[in-house]
Write the structure tokens for this entry.
Amino acid sequence: MFAAASSILAADSASDEVHVRRATINDLDDVVALENASFASDRVSARQWRHHLESLSAEVLLAIRDRRVVGAAMLLFHRRHRVARLYSIAVDANERGRRLGERLLRAAELAAARRESRVLRLEVRADNASAQRLYERNGYRLIGERLGYYEDGATARRYEKALRRPYLIAVPSRAG
Ligand SMILES: CC(C)(COP(=O)(O)OP(=O)(O)OC[C@H]1O[C@@H](n2cnc3c(N)ncnc32)[C@H](O)[C@@H]1OP(=O)(O)O)[C@@H](O)C(=O)NCCC(=O)NCCS
């Protein structure tokens, strides 16, 4: 698990000062603050975040700038199915428009592929056009809708993306 997290760091070492790392239980307060600032309803509660941060069937990734949590994404895994779910993704309001959502999305896809998921699925509010553009731009395909899915009765659009298997890097043998 630590190997996977450090690989994400390596794969995601972009030139700016934001990096992506796996969250731990020590990040609980920051993640909950971001959640509450980012969503008006259907929030993941502090108790649920704690559960997911400690669960083997979840993975939480953070975008960090100057040691501050500026974005978070939560993945859920099924024990038997190879379909991972992007349960939450949010970027600090002051940091939006800088493609951090995309960085988190890519890191989430890599993490899911490393856990042998073949597909990543998500739900998004039908009225959240900005998030839908983010997913469509990154290769997600609309697979359906769920009427009345959200607390306020809003419709969810369901998207999915087939994940590529992470490359295995061949180490050249010394012989020959
Ligand atoms: C959806 C979200 C994660 C995208 O993150 P992001 O890092 O801002 O993504 P991007 O940088 O790709 O920008 C998204 C859009 O906002 C625009 N934008 C530019 N500056 C912006 C700013 N200061 N504030 C908000 N949006 C801005 C971008 O141009 C882009 O336009 P587009 O919708 O035409 O693509 C983020 O908006 C967010 O946290 N929203 C609230 C939570 C949420 O809705 N999560 C998704 C649930 S499914």
